[in-house]
Amino acid sequence: MPASKAKEAKLETNENSLDVSVTQTALEDIDACQTDIDTLNEKASEEILSVEQKYNKLRRPHYSKRNEMIQKIPNFWWTAFTNHPQISAILTNEEVDCIQSLTNVDVEEFEDIKSGYKVTFTFKQNPYFTNEKLVKEFHLASSGEPQSKSTEIQWKEGKDLTKGSASETNGRKRKIEPALSFFTWFTNNTDPNADEIAEVIKDDMWPNPLQYYLASEGGASSDHGESDEEDEDDEEDDEQDGSAVVIGDESEEDQEVYVDEKDDDDDPEGEEEDEEEDGE
């Protein structure tokens, strides 16, 4: 190999080695920088958690006070639940009837927050079960995975709302498994990671149930308004139809009078000819 070629190859090898070295050093620096960022994120999470714990304690008396005031309003929680888009979507007709006996809802996060929370439903006497309180609890297992458990519902005979109904097909009875409903959600603890209803109750319904209670008044008002407008439109249509008939009748009368006047004024000869014909 000529000396010039060997020199060029050596220079190229040195340049490649230099590029690899620079890249490796840059990657190590980026990794060290990322470690610093992660450390700050962890510190921030701890401080945020501490702030959340502080304000959870400050909010509790207000939640208790709010629940006391809610007790004065009949069917408050029934109304809020049936107005909530996600919750109302899973309520069956029988469940809508059942939760009329729901008197109180409470969501309580555990002191360290990260370990979980529980939702407590309080019921008065009802035709479906004997429990006064139904509690669903979410917590972290020792493995770090979320788990949930719920109170066993003491259903009255023939009133279990979580059981499918039986139907007959070609003379054979077939059990129909129930779709997702409020009480099937409550009793199902197979996948707490995907429990959207619990998150909706904790993060949406519980912080401000008043907005969903008042939604009924807005909805009723809106529906009533639309009904009034429709009634007014119907009345206008009726008036227009009625006036059209009257106008038609009047126009016909006017037309007859108009024709008579025209015959009298504009065609006297024709009238004389008619009289002569009558005389004959």
TrEMBL record:
<dbReference type="InterPro" id="IPR002164">
    <property type="entry name" value="NAP_family"/>
</dbReference>
<feature type="region of interest" description="Disordered">
    <location>
        <begin position="211"/>
        <end position="280"/>
    </location>
</feature>
<dbReference type="InterPro" id="IPR037231">
    <property type="entry name" value="NAP-like_sf"/>
</dbReference>
<feature type="region of interest" description="Disordered">
    <location>
        <begin position="141"/>
        <end position="172"/>
    </location>
</feature>
<feature type="compositionally biased region" description="Polar residues">
    <location>
        <begin position="144"/>
        <end position="153"/>
    </location>
</feature>
<comment type="similarity">
    <text>Belongs to the nucleosome assembly protein (NAP) family.</text>
</comment>
<dbReference type="GO" id="GO:0005634">
    <property type="term" value="C:nucleus"/>
</dbReference>
<feature type="compositionally biased region" description="Acidic residues">
    <location>
        <begin position="249"/>
        <end position="280"/>
    </location>
</feature>
<dbReference type="GO" id="GO:0006334">
    <property type="term" value="P:nucleosome assembly"/>
</dbReference>
<dbReference type="Pfam" id="PF00956">
    <property type="entry name" value="NAP"/>
</dbReference>
<feature type="compositionally biased region" description="Acidic residues">
    <location>
        <begin position="226"/>
        <end position="241"/>
    </location>
</feature>
<protein>
    <submittedName>
        <fullName>Protein SET</fullName>
    </submittedName>
</protein>
